[in-house]
Design brief:
Blueprint: E1 6-13, E2 16-22, E3 27-33, H1 38-48, E4 55-61, E5 66-74, E6 77-85, H2 88-91, E7 100-108, H3 109-136, H4 143-157
Antiparallel strand pairs: 1-2, 2-3, 4-5, 5-6, 6-7
Length: 168
């Protein structure tokens, strides 16, 4: 189901996650800080693509840089644009165009939603809720956000591969 899109989210140290997204043309790999509830923010952003809003933004703290994902629904597809800003303390409210476009791809929403659900589920399966909290520190695992995204993805994208429980 995922075609040429790959996505992973791995806890890579105390308070750090390695986020990787790639298609057949390019790859983006970043080290995300625990200063924000990054995985929850991403899950909520992707969940928003199943509502009435056509654009969602998710910001990640790279200490000190900001990485911003702009997700724009275009019919059944999502245009994913990743912008880099040198300093999160000054870029938080800056327009996307002031950042440097570092990666972009257009993917079917069903594929994008699926890879994000799978990656979040893999983190939960590997670490469990307690293990996630021990490694991420500031925030618990976003169970409710994963459940919401999984439900909408199953319903609207008719995904039969995502039938498992988000806490299994």
């Amino acid at each position: 189901m995922t075609g040429d899109l790959q996505f992973s989210w791995e806890l890579s140290g105390s308070g750090w996650a390695t986020c990787r997204i790639a298609d057949t043309a390019a790859e983006q790999k970043d080290f995300i800080s625990y200063c924000t509830d990054a995985l929850a923010d991403l899950l909520f952003g992707v969940t928003g693509l199943y509502g009435t809003s056509t654009v969602q933004r998710v910001s990640f703290d790279l200490e000190p840089a900001e990485l911003r994902w702009r997700l724009q629904r275009r019919g059944a597809d999502v245009y994913i644009a990743v912008y880099s800003f040198p300093d999160m303390s000054t870029s938080w409210d800056a327009p996307d165009r002031e950042g440097a476009l570092s990666w972009s791809s257009t993917q079917p929403r069903r594929v994008f939603g699926h890879v994000v659900v799978e990656a979040a589920q893999a983190v939960l399966s590997l670490h469990g809720e307690a293990g996630y909290r021990d490694k991420w520190h500031r925030y618990p695992f976003p169970i409710a956000a994963l459940q919401d995204l999984r439900r909408l993805h199953q319903r609207d994208d008719e995904c039969e591969q995502c039938q498992g429980s988000p806490d299994s």
